[in-house]
Amino acid sequence: MRSNLPDPQLFLRKTIPSRPDIDIMEIVDSGNDGHVFRAQSTALRRDVACKVIPRSNLIKGPNGEESWQEEVHKADALKNPTVVKFLHILEWKDATLGFDCVVLLSEFVDGKCLRKFISKDEEDITVAFIVSWLESMLNLFNEMTQKGIKHGDLHAGNILVEDRSSFDLAGPQYAFRVTDFGVADASSEQRFKDDFLQLADILSQLLSAIDYATCSPKDKFIFSVLRNEFQARHLTETDVTRDSLARRPRELFQRLRGLGSEFELVATSESKSLKTPFDFLNCEQIGEAPALLRALYSDRFLGLAEIESRNNVVVTGPRGCGKSTVFRSLSLDQRLRVDDSNPQGTDYIGVYYRCDDLYFTFPRYVLPDRVEAIDTPIHFVISTLLSKLLDSLQLWAERHFPEQFAAAESHAAKNLWGVLGLAKPRDPSIDSLKAIVTRLNKERARASGWQRFVNDPKRPIGPCFGPEVLLLACEALSKAFSFMHERPVYFFIDDYSSPKISKNLQMNLNRMFFQRTSVCFFKLSTESPVSFVKSDMDGKSYVETREFILQNLGLAYLHAEVEEKLIFIEDVFRRRLVLTASFPVKELSILVGSNVQSNNDLARGIRDGEKSKLWGREILCNLCSGDVHFVISLVGTMVRDSGGSEAMTTGSAACIISPATQNSAIRAAAGSFLKDLRGIPRFGERLVDIVEAFGNVANSHLKFVDSKNEDRNPPKQATRIEPYETPSLSEEAKQVYDELLRYSVFIEDFRGKSLRGHVVPRLYLRRFLIPHFNLTFSKRDSIRLASADFETFLLKPREFEKIHQVDKHQPIQDRTLFDVDPEES
Fold first, then answer.
1. CB contact at 8 A, 357 and 495
2. Which of 210, 249, 468, 566 is the most exposed, fewest CB within 10 Å of its CB?
3. pLDDT > 70: what percent of the chain?
């Protein structure tokens, strides 16, 4: 830590004891763990970089061994020219001056570190500069990934910006060099522990230096992709089942190189056209193309009524189920951009906020010891949300209620200043919404700065907004403007998911997000029911149906009527097919046909050794667990497997894409998901073992056990697990259970009721996994488990499979026990 660092003046104009040919000339920089000097080597006849680190600041192994030396030499294995290579490792002890240091000699790079470049040369940071920097980093990460090498301490101080314009006529003006491999800070002040997260953090800092308003259309597009996709998703996602580019530097590099072509693709977005119907599988890819977002958004979305209700709502569901698309589409800012803000159709004022910058401002957040710092995140979020609200509200009011707005703006602004408790500058125009927005943006920046030094008692923290301030501000606006009397504010908070938004941070912010009032409501989207905390830091628990409504879009889709699901899916495809002028087919039913199949008939066929043929629009609906992007991608695969759009010509056949091609693509998709699932850190292999154990057991029941729920005794078709009672799980089993839900391997439904009358969680298998295990889409039957069996299922899935799998040699009377409560059998 800095407290361990000797005075850098002690080293200047001295010779390293073991290298009399090296003279320390000047201090270049100081970090948390050491000083960097420029030194001259008479033997090498050039400058070298000399990093001096107190031995006490070097990371040691579990037994006190100096493991840092092995880490430092990892850089030597890398061939990438971005890496600054170490030349020598020396010691420098001086008992008189009282220091014991290690000296790392490396190439000297004539340039600033990126941290200083951002603060002193901000005008030179352009979108092209950022793209060039990120290309260099991903190129380096590609080799690091191949060789299993991690940097461990990547930050803006360890990246050097070398200006080559004075001598290099062929290359770019700036080159980027990375130093300090393995020399991680010993101060425990690292904001992130992972190289990809560290890269995302640096990208966030660079993007904050860009003046978006002055960018060209192409730069605006690239900026949005870098912020909304690279920073927010590709570099921070650890689950490759949710993002095929996550943790894959080569693919990320190729995507970055292709952004120019992507811009050309969306440049016609105002005319709302697509190159293929299968472009833009997620909301972030649409970027700043409001007309295209509106054209692709289906108002037949299942669960929309609950989202728009006057309740606080927590919206969850599998990745790709449309949460972000709906939240953005319902915001007033989006509606203003597509001329859909008529007051007659505007029942509320929607404000959209994605939690990306919250994540980078408060990484790995824990509740601070300093009382005055507790409300820092509240201050940041209120400053952000209220500024967004005032911007949208002013645009909307000036368009539709200009006279009322002009008459009431000054009064509203005065009330807001009072609510915020901020001292007003002496300015004639200060009582305006624009003036308040300007001040709120400054408060947002101040809160971000406070958080960086929240645990340093020497750093002052100013007064913060309390959790009630946003509600009071909405009340002030409602009273001041007559056009807001019957229109509450809806705050759409997107991607409010742990671990990205830590549980401690959620517990802090929940003091505001779960308050109940008639003037504003909070809509929080989270990736799974276990990704948000139902309590706050004051110990208050929030009860579903009282403080909030839980809307699980996976369940909304699962339990919807077939016709309702078909209307939605076909509307989604119709919009895409119509927007693609070059694609000859405009209806899903023509593309894949219609194929109504009886689950009982399918089950009997499977029992007789047949492998069911899955095709048609009805099957696509059955495969969907709300994850519409999966269905779109799947049909795209079917089109490519059939020869592309040129082969999509109508004829006399029931469908254009053959049933065999559809069936093959459907079965391959499930296998691909399981392959990616294995790659999830820590729990991946276990999750695959669990789902395979369930699938094999369920398949054996279908083949050898009859259902007791119908007179005709059809094969038992279980695609869900149902405990006899609410499970009491060990800590390890609970962790595994949460991961199953987090990755939507199973979808939890608490509406189940056991034979004993208990409300129990039913776990439905992710629908597109059903074909992989040769099951049907019936929701009638369950694999019922006692609490101990459920624990075995989670912790020892292969043992569970051996116990519960049945075969044709098992006595009939034993097979009938699987649907019976053991206490009643």
1. no
2. 468
3. 92
Q: CA–CA separation, 814 vs 806, rounded Å?
A: 9
Structure confidence at residue 269 as a pLDDT band (50, 70, 90): very low
d(CA 291, CA 188): 46
Task: Take residue 775 and report the two structure tokens written for it.
Answer: 């099951």
What residues contact 793, with CB distance under 8 A and at least 6 apart? Answer: 690, 693, 694, 721, 785, 800
Does residue 24 contact residue 11 with C-beta atoms inside 8 Å? Answer: yes
User: How large is the average pLDDT for residues 606-616?
Assistant: 89
Res 427 pLDDT > 80: no
* Gap between the Cα atoms of 582 and 391, Å rounded: 39
Tell me the pTM. Answer: 0.80
Average pLDDT over residues 517-540: 93
Question: Tokens for 715?
Answer: 């094969």
Pull the structure tokens for residue 67. Answer: 């493991």
- Supply the Cα-derived Rg of the chain in whole angstroms: 30
Cis peptide before 499 (omega within 30 of 0): yes
CA distances to 35, 353, 607, 781 from 707, in Å: 74, 48, 13, 7
Q: Which two tokens mark 669?
A: 């998709």
Q: What is the pLDDT of residue 187?
A: 34
| Of 73, 71, 630, 548, nearest in space to 313 by CA | 548
Q: Is 357 helix (H, G, I), strand (E, B) or coil?
A: helix
Partners of 523 in the beta sheet? Answer: 313, 492
- The CATH class that applies to domain 113-264 reads mainly alpha
Give the torsion through C-alpha atoms of 720, 726, 730, 735, to 10 deg.
50
Amino acid, res. 352:
Y
In the chain, where are the structural domains located? 2-108, 113-264, 303-558, 560-673, 684-819
Which residue would you say has higher pLDDT here, 713 or 432? 432
Q: Is the pLDDT of residue 328 over 70?
A: yes
> Is the four-CA dihedral 463, 468, 473, 476 of positive or negative sign?
negative
| Alpha-carbon gap, residue 492 to 335, rounded angstroms | 14
pLDDT bucket at 189, cuts 50 / 70 / 90: very low
- Point out the least confidently predicted range of 32-46, 178-192, 385-399, 758-772: 178-192
- CA torsion sign for 466, 468, 474, 478 is negative
Given this model, what pLDDT does residue 535 score? 94
Give the H/E segment covering residue 217: helix 217-225
- The letter for the amino acid at 173 is Q
Least confident of 189-193, 546-550, 630-634: 189-193
Distance CA 665, CA 662 (A): 5
Q: Answer yes or no: is pLDDT of 815 > 80.
A: no
Residue 171 class from Cβ within 10 Å (0-12 exposed, 13-18 middle, 19+ buried)? exposed
The answer, yes or no, to whether residue 100 has pLDDT greater than 90, is no
Residue 3 pLDDT greater than 50, yes or no:
yes
For residue 592, give the H/E element and its range: helix 588-592
Report the relative pairing of strands 489-494 and 520-526 from DSSP bridges.
Answer: parallel
- Return the SS3 of 298: coil
Tokens representing 44 are: 């090498």
Give the fold, CATH level 3, of 2-108.
Answer: Phosphorylase Kinase; domain 1 (3.30.200)
